[in-house]
């Protein structure tokens, strides 16, 4: 196997690290809520592992997952399905293709709705019936009443305070139980770096863990935006640091994602105290 192929294989192996919860009982509590028929809202900053958290819950419950990534362009067709032309018995017919919400309800899958608070508020009420005791919705595209399989559950995720987001209305929020997802730190972060990246140097991993703690503190006091402390970005930097000086890796993976030059300079200043120059 050549070097490039070996490197590619390593990255694939680390593509889905374990989810490290803070506090540690978070996963078991979320599983308990889902088994009781509750729907979950994961609330936390970008890059804190909300999507991976949902994947772990689906794996533990042995459920397939349907995903919806919300945007301002999200419409009912993206949720419920669409009509298309097909051929039956040599004739052109109009066929209905199920969307992720209908598939998840009918087949008893987990529905993961990412960035729920980015969607336009007028689109979301279609979910209300599926999320409450009725566990039903009327599909306006087919006039069919869809009743959820008993295994059907919803896990949604939101980033609060980011551009383009809006508060969830009370009727929708009350259909969830809320779990706050924080940036993992300390020993758990070190383990995540070991399992989720190609970085194996223990001294370097320790430096990245301490650097991450500085980023979190700076974001908590308002010196940096929350996204500067993204664990996803930190893991990218750890991978890059196996191929280049760590400070350059931080510049590309962490500082480069910030739009304010002063914030970028602060990230590099913090990183320099651990990784030196260049």
TrEMBL record:
<dbReference type="InterPro" id="IPR003593">
    <property type="entry name" value="AAA+_ATPase"/>
</dbReference>
<protein>
    <submittedName>
        <fullName>MoxR family ATPase</fullName>
    </submittedName>
</protein>
<feature type="domain" description="AAA+ ATPase">
    <location>
        <begin position="36"/>
        <end position="187"/>
    </location>
</feature>
<dbReference type="Pfam" id="PF07728">
    <property type="entry name" value="AAA_5"/>
</dbReference>
<dbReference type="InterPro" id="IPR050764">
    <property type="entry name" value="CbbQ/NirQ/NorQ/GpvN"/>
</dbReference>
<dbReference type="InterPro" id="IPR027417">
    <property type="entry name" value="P-loop_NTPase"/>
</dbReference>
<dbReference type="InterPro" id="IPR011704">
    <property type="entry name" value="ATPase_dyneun-rel_AAA"/>
</dbReference>
